Amino acid sequence: MDIFTYGILKDSEINRLKKKTRHNLGAKIKEVRESKSLTQVDLASRIEGRFDTSNVSRIESGRINTTVFTLFRIAKALDIDISDLLDIEVFED
């Protein structure tokens, strides 16, 4: 499916892309976290401000949508650029 050709997405396609985006973003965060030998508890403790371990779990599993500010805080805690987290596949089938 080439969303740029059709221009308009059906609600079901939008929901599929939202779910895939959350899943792939969470997988990327988990991949980086594990590559640095950090647990979810370790990551949560490094994130500036109050941040619960259960939030890390929900983000990594793709169950919740997170804000750009939270992504910035996660990237900072992982000592990477936020763009590294956003380098994910979404539109590929």
UniProtKB/TrEMBL annotation:
Protein's UniProt keywords contain DNA-binding:
yes
KW DNA-binding (keyword) present:
yes
Q: Which domain of life is it from?
A: Bacteria
Pfam families (alphabetical)? HTH_3 (PF01381)
Which keywords does the record carry? DNA-binding
| InterPro entries reported in the protein's UniProt record | Cro/C1-type_HTH, Lambda_DNA-bd_dom_sf, TransReg_Diox_bact_type
What PROSITE patterns does its record include? Answer: HTH_CROC1
Which residues does the UniProt record annotate as the domain HTH cro/C1-type?
Answer: 29-85
From the Swiss-Prot or TrEMBL record, give the protein name.
Answer: HTH cro/C1-type domain-containing protein
